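Here is one chain, start to finish.
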Amino acid sequence: MGIDTDKSAGYFPFYGRLANEQKTVLLSNLQKRRFNKGDIIHSGAEDCIGLLLVTEGQLRVYALSDEGKELTLYRLFERDMCLFSASCIMASIQFEVMISAERDTQTLIVPALVYKQLMTDSAAVANYTNELMASRFTEVMWLIDQIQNKKLDSRLAAFLIEESYLTSDNVLSITHEAIANHLGSIREVITRMLKYFQEEGLVKLGRGYINLTDTVRLTDMAKNSLK
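Its structure:
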């Protein structure tokens, strides 16, 4: 299936401020790609596919330590754009991230060199890029503050509540290992904390699922860690 250029143009906030020639360059170079749940889309600075825009689905941007420990930095949803997938053209980006598909996801990709040229030629694109980069780094700094200053029980409660919002369900199909990867912890610690939550009547644990049985108390516990 080809690209609907009229619909695609609407995904880019700066499109209306581009010159006609720049609009043509953007739309004629767009690539449409679909990723399956679990696919690794970007794996560090050496992997530079270009500006990534989500049109359907959900992506996860995360850091990976030398020891293999994961930490979710943020997620991308419909109409969200990711600059880190074009990190090779962003001199100010000094750390590497991974990007994976949390759901089957449809994307539009602007090749890295094409986007770099648009940033050079268009003040609107350059300004938007700076604003987007500042927003993402603000999210990362918020996360660092959470890790340094907030207790794990609050962060775990916030994660469970946010997952229930995303899935519109109080029964979450997720493993303790996956939660640990999101929170930068280890499975054993998350398991102990969840068992404590269960003893307190906040959740009910089953094989491969977590039932949030008291979202009011969980939300109160999570109040310092919810965005």
